Amino acid sequence: MRGWRVVVCAVALFVADGLAVGGGLAHAATRPNILVIVTDDQRSGLDAMPATRGIFKVEGIRYPQGYVTDPLCCPSRASIMTGRYPHNTGVKSNVEHPELGVGAASALDASTTVQRYLDQAGYRTALVGKFLNGWNFSNPPPYFDSFALVNQRHDYYRNQVSVGTASAGVTSSFISDAYNTTIVRRRTLGFLRSQAGSKTPFFLYVAPGAPHSPFTPEPKYAADTFGLWPGNPAVFEADKSDKPPYVRAKSTSLRYGRWTRTRQYRTLESVDAMVAAIFHELKAKGKDNNTLAFFISDNGYMWGEHGLRGKDVPYTPSVRVPFFLRWPNGPLAAGSTDRRAAANIDIAPTALDAAGIPIPSSTDGHSLLTDTKRSRQLTEHWCNTSRCLYWAAERTGQYHYIEYYDGPNFDTANVTFREYYDLGADPFELRNLLRDGDPTNNPNLTTPAAHLAADRNCAGQACP
């Protein structure tokens, strides 16, 4: 239990156009509220989100080198909640693959999550929106005092919703035809309104479905345009002979990239309005300055770079995400840019650090409130719902080194292909300096391979 004081208390129920809220142990008001907003499949940038940009970029801290540990929904979200890499959470896919030793939501040890530590330290914990892929909606998400699970099914207007509390379990489950982001916004605002006058700090995890496919916008945004995207050199890559076979087989065009960008941006306009409403409510209740808020996506998205679409690949647009922190009462300078390599595994330890809770030794990430700098960034991937693609990669400010594997055993014995990019000279990853797939021909590349071999099995503070 790491010495946490477990508090048993009566549950008060609030139904204010939002979540039913469980009671908790009151603590000093100096401890910050903690808000985590997680979008779904949003690549780096806030171009279609002026309100969010103003709130987080102007009033917060921007992390332009913000990455995810695995560019796939369920593993990434588990990393956000635990501060650990997928190889340590065991959550390596969106679906269960027991025959491959690859787990999804059921593999998560909820007792090691940020919500558990905060809940047992007296925070009032709440979740609105998406939890983990494949989660059984008849089960309460562990260590959330109150929750409104919202999962878009066929499009943004067919949502499975389950509402309840930790003490009562799921009290209501239904299909809603309201727009996904609208449901998440209303439930979130309902929770915040229920906190008016409360001295108990809260942890609120908000996860809308946007901008995930099928990219269905609200009618009021359905015709919006955002200028003609010119693409980038990776979209126009003519020679892919140095890329692995799955990349050479794809030919997604600039036209598709533009189509996807426009449709994702339209859905993000609704998220932008939601974020503005959340912070308006926080300010109205006098809680905005002492709320530590994060904005991040679970993974990026390819708009035709290297002929690819979607996610689950190691290239930059797939793994780099919008990453922002805001805490006016905190120690960090507002309106600044932090160029350290940041990762989704840093959110949990940062939240615990801000709350004055010791960071467990099993945590792989680092608190962004300290001056810790990682010299390299690990990303890894096993299976998506439709295919298994096994790879691990190491990124520094100078290079990006990638290994692909023949199966879930990530070791040098089953490496099938390697890539190495000089990011200084080649930021769009056009020239694989290992086009023959064999790093032994270049002894200067032994260090990245050695680092990757160590990091893909790392744990705790031994991790980068």
Question: How are the elements arranged and paired?
Answer:
Blueprint: E1 33-39, H1 50-58, E2 61-62, E3 66-67, H2 73-82, H3 86-89, H4 114-120, E4 124-129, E5 146-152, E6 159-165, E7 169-176, H5 180-194, E8 202-207, H6 245-248, H7 254-284, E9 291-297, E10 302-303, E11 309-310, H8 316-319, E12 323-326, E13 336-337, E14 342-343, H9 347-354, E15 377-383, E16 388-395, E17 399-405, E18 415-422, H10 446-455
Parallel strand pairs: 1-8, 1-9, 2-13, 3-14, 4-5, 4-8
Antiparallel strand pairs: 2-12, 5-6, 6-7, 9-12, 10-11, 15-16, 16-17, 17-18
3D structure, described in words:
- The protein has 464 residues and is of the alpha/beta class.
- It has one domain: Alkaline Phosphatase, subunit A, CATH 3.40.720.10.
- The chain is built from ten helices and 18 strands.
- Strands 7-6-5-4-8-1-9-12-2-13 form a ten-stranded mixed beta sheet, sandwiched between helices. Strands 15-16-17-18 form a four-stranded antiparallel beta sheet, with helices on one face. Strands 3-14 form a two-stranded parallel sheet.
- Helix 1 (50-58) crosses helix 7 (254-284) and helix 5 runs parallel beside helix 7.
- The radius of gyration is 21 Å and the shape is globular.
- It starts with 32 loop residues before the first strand and ends in a 9-residue tail after the last helix.
- The model is unreliable at 1-29 (pLDDT under 50).
